[in-house]
Design a protein that fits this description.
2 domains; 6-stranded mixed sheet; Nucleotidyltransferase, domain 5; 18 helices; 23 strands; 501 residues; alpha/beta
Length: 501
């Protein structure tokens, strides 16, 4: 028996799983929660990286207490993408991390884009537009707004890289997560000198070496190995962003598989053997953490929005499902533009939430709950439609994340997307993917070919009892409502800007 830990450090919590590669089963799971720093100005979303470390150590201790520690061979880490962890020359955190959902950097996005020669030039240079969620504008924000902190900067890491640094003492960054910084040429998998200079001519010295996702980040520090009562040779894999690890954890490592994460944010992504660069810049041309590519759409408002509505009305999750199911498709004309955190796809960083269609018969909790689930799913479908225009042909979408546990939401998603959806037996896809990557690293070092493919085949399974097929009549209705939703979004973008001014 060989055991591997998978750790997923997200926006709201850190999860850990222990995978037994002999059986392909997850033997233990644990979770530790935390929150955003309260009281910050609108658009600023930050966390203390020390809280991620504390949560990591909590969940590791919990899962190790349920298994034979002597069998643990490796650890893999998944983390929320795009966050900026600024470190000084001694590896100490300079200030809190600005997160993927931070939209305070719109001015910096415009400056970097201008310095690159405009949006088309940015797409040509990096494969992506420079968006507020990305890391590059956060670095420039620090330089422009907190120059004393910036003068201390010597190392730039992403959240999962920072956890790898804690585990190994080594600075590293792999292609998948790095492709979401806005500083990398995703086609050639190298740092973009032009993008780096657009932030700061000295920034290159602060970026770690880019490495293949198949390389390890190092070995577990002896101090941690002794504290956790593990062997002296535990491997730490390269890890990756949560979407890249989620791709592995849902078996999305070959053409034809499409995954969707219904978490705090929402993502839909697919495997590609070559870069997929959207000329409109709405689909992220990311690299995968399997040395391929992962064209991806991301929306910032999924369970972050539905949970607010659920809490507002005092529903538990079952009551929320019953309320949604009690209202017909389309919520009798009530529509939500769910941009509570601004939005990334479409790019509306100054957006806000807006209900349209409130009448005397649609102001009850059930209608608002239904319109909320439909609104966030329309947001995802906006991006899915764009992926389809770029050549993706989804025949099935594999769901992961907290929202995937809701049978009502699964059916609603199938009806809106127009394709079957199905959840996974292990719904912590990113943590499972991280464990699988760590197991594949050990197998490759032992000379095993196609190690990841073999491990995924054994450990990743669809839960057929959750499969939902689209209803033809509801899908036809939702196609019309999607067009209405998109038109409302376009028509109100100027109003969003005025609202935030």
């Amino acid at each position: 028996m060989s055991l591997f830990l998978g750790i997923d450090s997200g926006t709201q919590s850190t999860k850990a799983v222990v995978l037994d590669t002999r059986t392909g089963r997850v033997l233990a799971e644990a979770r530790a929660t935390y929150g955003l720093i309260p009281g910050l100005p609108s658009g600023h979303m930050e966390q203390h990286p020390e809280e991620w470390i504390s949560a990591l150590e909590t969940v590791v201790e919990k899962v190790l207490g349920k298994v034979d520690r002597s069998k643990v061979r490796g650890i893999g880490v998944s983390g929320q993408q795009h966050g900026f962890v600024p470190l000084d020359a001694h590896g100490k955190v300079i200030r809190p991390a600005k997160l993927w959902c931070d939209t305070s950097t719109t001015k910096e996005c415009a400056l970097i884009t201008q310095r690159l020669g405009g949006p088309k030039a940015a797409l040509k240079e990096t494969g992506s537009l420079i968006l507020p969620g990305f890391t590059a504008p956060k670095i420039l924000w620090l330089k422009r707004n907190e120059p004393d902190c910036y003068r201390r900067l010597r190392h730039v890491l992403l959240p999962h890289d920072y956890l790898n640094f804690h585990l190994t003492g080594e600075y590293s960054m792999e292609y998948g997560d790095a492709s979401g910084t806005g500083l990398m040429d995703v086609r050639r998998r190298i740092w973009s000198a032009k993008a780096i200079r657009a932030v700061d001519k000295n920034l290159a010295a602060f970026l770690p070496k880019l490495t293949s996702s198949e390389e390890g980040a190092g070995r577990l520090r002896p101090e941690l190995a002794r504290r956790w009562k593990l062997g002296p040779d535990v491997l730490v894999s390269a890890g990756g962003g949560d979407n890249m690890m989620g791709a592995i954890g849902t078996g999305n490592i070959r053409p034809g598989v499409v995954s969707a994460s219904f978490g705090t944010s929402g993502t839909i992504y697919a495997y590609s053997k070559k870069p997929v660069v959207d000329p409109q810049g709405e689909i992220a041309a990311f690299c995968s953490s399997t040395n391929a590519w992962l064209p991806l759409l991301c929306t910032m408002n999924v369970t972050s929005t539905t949970e607010k509505i659920r809490t507002l009305f005092g529903f538990d999750h079952a009551a929320m499902d019953r309320a949604v199911a009690s209202v017909p498709a389309g919520a009798d004309g009530l529509t939500l533009l769910p941009y509570l955190l601004g939005e990334r796809t479409p790019n509306i960083p100054n957006g806000s939430g807006l209900f349209i269609g409130l009448t005397g018969s649609t102001t009850d909790a059930a209608h608002i709950a239904r319109a909320t689930l439909e609104g966030v799913t329309f947001g995802l479908n906006y991006g899915l439609r764009r992926l389809i225009k770029l050549g993706l042909v989804p025949k099935e979408i594999r769901l992961t994340g907290g929202g995937a546990r809701s049978p009502v939401w699964r059916q609603l998603a199938a009806d809106i997307f127009g394709v079957p959806v199905v959840a996974m037996k292990e719904d912590e896809g990113a943590a499972l993917g991280a464990a699988l990557q760590a197991a594949a690293l050990e197998a490759r070092l032992a000379g095993v070919k196609n190690a990841l493919e073999q491990l995924v085949e054994k450990a990743v399974a669809i839960d057929e009892s959750t499969r939902c097929l689209p209803d033809r009549k509801r899908h036809a209705l939702y196609k019309k409502l999607q067009d209405r939703h998109d038109a409302l979004s376009r028509s109100l973008r100027e109003a969003f800007e005025i609202h935030r001014a």
